[in-house]
Amino acid sequence: MTTRGPRPILVFGGSGQLAMALEDAALATPIGRQLRRVGRPDHDLDRLDLLPGLLRAARPALVINAAAYTEVDRAETDAAAAWRANALGPAVLAAWCGHAGIPLVHVSTDYVFDGLKGAPYDEADPPCPTGVYGATKLAGEQAVLAACPRAIVLRTSWVYAPRGRNFVRTMLAAAQRTDRLRVVADQVGCPTSATDLAALILGIAARIDGDGGRNRHAGVFHAAGTGSTSWHGLATAIFTAAARHGVAAPRVEPIATADWPTAARRPPDSRLDCARLADAFGLAAPPWEASLIRCVDALCAPASVGERLAMPADRQAAMVAA
Q: Cα(134)–Cα(129) distance, rounded to whole angstroms?
């Protein structure tokens, strides 16, 4: 008789910064060998017809969906692709997980809010997205919660890492090309290290594993870095940290959102209140400033600069004008 090993933890969005951070974090835990990053072309949320068969073959113990269409401005003219990746794909994942009784952790966004509350959003606040990206992510949340009783939706914000496409890398790369940057200063949020977010997700996974399938922890939670700042404040902090490595800082000028119009409207204040996460799981991310310094240190290591700053900018680059 053939004996199978532990069932895997599948992480969709395998080439993204959060999936890679999850893999790195898992290596230091007992589940390190269980975690599998999956994504295109074999596990593609655009191939909805193939997903159930792939999931049956994998027999996961837990599914983490870190895949998404994140091009905020492009989504305004490419809505069909955003809906497939952000709503329809997660709906298929959740339906399969719900039928199989498998927990699902689905990563969502602060862009489900319009940013007009004037205070940090908690999970009881009604969502009100202002663009296609936020609307598709909200639809994904709703589909996941409706189809999978063991689903946890984690809303996060302003995610960055030493790898992948993110604002921190965009800033450091821009500093190599210009001595002057203009960065939006009237949008506020909670910068979140992918490393910290991965640690939170693995902490949640451990508690899910220990709840005996009782679904005590299902629902929506906010999971973001502790503290908040503006894009301009974040850019300034990046260059302060980079200066410790001899990186020459450009002049970072604050501008208003109106000075740098984009196709999609961004929430002006998308701060997230993460108290529910701490109450339910005893988990909280560190202050964003300390995590940012660790990320910049990794990016500014002498052997890393050329390779790690070569990636193109992501959706957050819309906050910057060279």
A: 5
